[in-house]
Design a protein that fits this description.
Length: 145
């Protein structure tokens, strides 16, 4: 089954978003772009909230959100009970966010890492399984409801 990926962010992440969409498509992922679609200044919550709601509804398996620091998009996504967004800046964190935290959204800081690293992190994030076991009880306790 093809993994369905929701991608979005803000104006600082548009360049990486466009490249990642194409790259992930060549790997066989079904990628839906939630915007924005230009480098004109925008408010990231306008794009990240709809993306997060769609993941919570089961329309997508994973999300990738991208802004300058990665913080704003991660904070916004994590307001949703069904989202576990991880801000990552290296490959090890991307893998660990899946293995230990069952993260379902990768937050990328476009102004602080290379595109090549963002691509590697996305691939690792999307292919690394959750280990479960001792981590499952911790993940279960994350939600406030």
């Amino acid at each position: 089954m093809t993994k369905r990926i929701a991608i979005g962010g803000d104006h600082a992440g548009v360049g990486y978003k466009e490249q990642l969409k194409q790259h992930l498509g060549t790997l066989g992922y079904a990628v839906q772009d939630f915007g924005p679609f230009s480098t004109a200044s925008v408010d990231y919550p306008d794009y990240v909230h709809p993306l997060s709601l769609a993941i919570e509804a089961g329309e997508y398996d994973f999300g990738i959100v991208i802004c300058g620091s990665g913080n704003g998009v991660a904070i916004t996504a994590n307001k949703h009970q069904g989202i576990r967004a991880a801000l990552c800046w290296n490959e090890e964190l991307a893998a660990l966010s899946r293995q230990h935290n069952d993260a379902n959204v990768l937050a990328i800081p476009a102004r602080f890492i290379s595109y090549e690293l963002a691509e590697k992190m996305a691939e690792l994030f999307l292919t690394t399984p959750f280990e479960g076991g001792r981590h499952q009880s911790r993940v279960t306790k994350i939600a406030c409801s």
